[in-house]
Amino acid sequence: MRPDRPIDGLMAELQALAQISEAEPPVVTRVVFSEADRRARAYVKGLCAAAGLTVQEDPAGNTFARWQGTDPTLAPIGTGSHIDAIPNAGSYDGVVGVLGGLEAIRVLRQMGFAPRRSIELVIFTAEEPTRFGIGCLGSRMMAGVLSPEKAQALRDKEDRTLDELRAQAGFAGPLESVALPPGRFHKFIELHIEQGPELEREGIDLGLVTHIAAPASVKILIEGEGGHAGGKLMPGRKDALAAAAELILALESAAKSTGAIDTVGTVGVCEVFPGAVNSIPSRVRLETDIRDIDRQRRDGVIRSLFDACQEIALRRSIDFKADVVNSDPPAQCDEETLAVMEKAAAEAGKSSQRLVSRAYHDSLFVARIAPVAMLFIPCRGGVSHRPDEYASPGWIGSGVNVLARTLAVLAS
Ligand code: GLV
Ligand code: MN
Ligand code: MN
User: Fold this and answer.
1) Measured from the CA of 359, which atom of ligand 1 is nearest?
2) Which of 98, 123, 241, 328 is 20 to 30 A off residue 91, Cα-Cα?
3) CB count, 10 Å around CB of 285?
4) How close is the Cα of 194 to the center of ligand 3, in Å?
5) pTM
6) Which protein residue's CA is at the shortest distance from atom 2 of ligand 1?
7) Residue 3 maps to a domain
8) CA 273 to ligand 2 center in whole angstroms
9) Confidence (pLDDT) at 110
10) Domain boundary among 327, 356, 375
11) Which of the ligands is closest to the CA of residue 376?
């Protein structure tokens, strides 16, 4: 088998998809259910249909494009990722797994391969947490980890509900039907850029993911007392932003002090009210992101964060309200698929290395209902979630080649 045809067509599709953005290209911003997200979905569905796949969508907008196998009674092999993008993102995160997965299917079809198991490309809704503050919305619901009731309670910044937004995007039907039973996929493989520097630095073509780190997010509302920035003197102030600053540093210190390089803590959102230069901040809203490959250690950092909230609240006479949005366990990848990918890489003449995924992915949740594996390709400088994110055609081609070989083995 030699699924290593030129990928000019795929590169053109990646570029075309990158033009569908809420921001001026090359900046990609594609928040779930935005106009850009809807156009991007239509573009990708069109490509799937043109490739001869049967396209179906669930009520949350998760999209399934199926190549029917010769034995439709068998559970399919799944592959895919997401096409939504955080604000100010690049062109490869998620998209490589969707369009690269489609390309792997097209290569196999062109070679005349007839899969025994169906191969299904999945495009997950809202892997990114931008709109609703929670990552992997589609795959989380698919795995039954987020109940329809909790999903209905989600609101975006404009106070719009999931129901309102999905209806506007053309998705109807009961959210109860989004959850899939274990066994729905025989195996699931996600192709993705590494979003870290290891592969490029070591000159390795492919990363074979053994574990996906455990992500958590805590939202914190800090309420102090506002007032005139000139008239109100320093003693007795209850400045919510000054309290937030202490908390941000407390999180940084808690993450650093575990002694493990794998612990990370970030405050990526800080909203200040009223946000006027001559007004003492009365209210601050923080969103934190805490991860580790070791769940206990990650939970220790969350406890330190809560302790810091209490201590700062007492000392400054300020109110803190902290809510855990999610605290997910890590996932372990399927050894059998890892072995197939390792062999496929060797047969394709590509070097590979086992590694952990520090970013989360839809596979973290698919792992609850199916054995999963992830195939990483390098990205320049390890840069991701930025407009200068880049993966070369050579790297993408290697990923597609090895993904196609792996799908062929698993679907036979
Ligand atoms: C995924 O986008 C992540 O933040 O890991
Ligand atoms: Mn991302
Ligand atoms: Mn991603």
Assistant:
1) 5
2) 328
3) 17
4) 9
5) 0.92
6) 128
7) no
8) 28
9) 96
10) 327
11) 3
CATH (domain of 362): 3.40.630.10
Ligand of minimum distance to the alpha carbon of 215: 1
Residues 277 and 349 in one domain: no
Domain containing 317 equals: 215-327
Each residue of 36-50: b (16+ CB within 10 Å) or e?
bbbebbebbbebbee
> Alpha-carbon distance 319 to 95, whole Å?
42
Ligand 1 atom at minimal distance to the Cα of residue 291: 5
Distance CA 211, CA 215 (A): 12
Q: How far is CA 159 from CA 75, 122, 163, 164, 278, in A?
A: 39, 29, 12, 10, 28
Residue 2 pLDDT greater than 80, yes or no: no
Within-domain flag for 1: no
- Same domain? For 161 and 308 the reply is no
Query: What radius of gyration do the chain's Cα atoms show?
Result: 22
Nearest CA to ligand 1 atom 5: 359
Enter the tokens of residue 96.
Answer: 């490589």
Cα–Cα distance, 66 to 100 (Å, whole number): 15
Instruction: Please report the beta strands in 240-381, taking only residues with DSSP state E, as ranges in sequence order.
Output: 264-273, 279-280, 283-292, 319-327, 331-332, 352-357, 372-377
Cis, bond preceding 274 (omega within 30 deg of 0): yes
| CB within 8 Å of 18: residues ≥ 6 apart | 25, 26, 28, 90, 91, 95
Looking at residue 1, what is its pLDDT? 61
Mutate to test the pocket of ligand 1, among 361, 365, 376 (most ligand atoms within 8 A of CB): 361
Q: Do residues 34 and 173 share a domain? A: yes
List the CATH number of the domain containing 289.
3.30.70.360
Residue 177 in contact with residue 361, Cβ under 8 Å? no
Closest CA to 212 of 401, 375, 62: 375
Average pLDDT, the chain: 97
Which DSSP state fits 330?
P
The DSSP bridge pattern shows strands 77-82 and 187-193 to be parallel
Cβ atoms within 10 A of the Cβ of 317, count? 12
**Adjacent-strand bridge partners of 64:** 56, 122
Closest CA relative to residue 265, chosen from 280, 279, 286: 286
Is residue 56 predicted with pLDDT exceeding 80?
A: yes
Whether residues 80 and 126 fall in one domain? yes
- Hey, is 235 helix, strand or coil? coil
Average pLDDT rounded to a whole number, residues 375-381: 98
pLDDT average, residue stretch 140-153: 97
* Residue 301, SS3 per DSSP: helix
